[in-house]
Amino acid sequence: MEQNLLENYIKDSRTIDLAKANIFSLLLFIPIILVYGLPFYLIWGKLDFIGVFVESFRENPLFPIAVVIILLAGIVVHELIHGVTFALFAKHGFKSIKFGILLKMLTPYCHCKERLRVRQYIVGAIMPAIILGVLPAFIAIFTGNVFLLIFAIFFTGAAAGDFMIIHLIWKEDKDTMVLDHPSEAGCFIFKKI
Predict the structure, then answer these.
(1) Given this model, what pLDDT does residue 2 score?
(2) Which residues are CB-contacts of 75 (< 8 A; sequence separation ≥ 6)?
(3) H/E element holding 75?
(4) pLDDT at residue 61, as a whole number
(5) What span, in angstroms and rounded, lies between the C-alpha atoms of 189 and 95?
(6) Which DSSP state fits 96?
(7) Helix (H) or strand (E) holding 191
(8) How far apart are CA 161 and CA 10, in angstroms?
(9) Distance of alpha carbon 136 from alpha carbon 148, whole angstroms
(10) Of the four listed, 18, 49, 136, 169, which is most buried by Cβ atoms within 10 Å?
(11) What is the pLDDT of residue 35?
(12) Which residues of 73-85 are buried (b: 16+ CB within 10 A; e: fewer)?
């Protein structure tokens, strides 16, 4: 039955270049800093990223180690958020989720082995940017917490590859089936013949 269903579809590959995603991520920091930083500055009247880090290091020499640990934990949580969200939509739940690292770019990944609808895939792809980026940015802006603002900026930028993949499938019918690519950053779209 499954094979007969697939025979009526063309499998179209949609992948991104991870080197370009890394460059896009760096370029994305400029608008992210403006979008998050401007309201922060208008409300709190200051925005001194470097000064905060220098002062924190003076107060605690272990501060850089704490930053690295937080960033590494955030990267793991980013992939877990993909996994949990995809698992909510997958027929076999977390059994359909695989985690790993693409060694050629040292990029961690979450792979869903089941086909999802485009809308479900987009939700799974965007969720880390919302949970680790947008929500912390709102909290930082309302509380004046510059460390949380920096965290939000970093993890919104870290979702650059996710944004690029979403861009590849955004115009597709939201009920079209999509399958995460098993070895590349991207997916397959199943278009009806």
Answers:
(1) 45
(2) 108, 158
(3) helix 63-89
(4) 86
(5) 22
(6) G
(7) strand 186-192
(8) 25
(9) 6
(10) 136
(11) 97
(12) ebbeebbebbbbb
Tokens 């979403």 label which residue? 166
The counts of H helices and E strands in the chain are 8, 6
Contact 109, 180 (CB under 8 A): no
Q: Who's near 65: CB < 8 A, 6+ residues apart?
A: none
Separation CA 12–CA 6 (nearest Å)? 12
pLDDT at position 184: 85
**What is the spatial distance between Cα 68 and Cα 88, in angstroms, rounded to a whole number?**
30
Element (H, E) at 115: strand 115-117
Residue 32 tokens read as 């992210």
* Res 52: pLDDT: 83
> How far, in whole angstroms, is CA 126 from its chain's centroid?
6
DSSP three-state, residue 113: coil
- Annotated domain spans of the chain: 11-44+58-192
Below-50 pLDDT ranges, the chain? 1-4
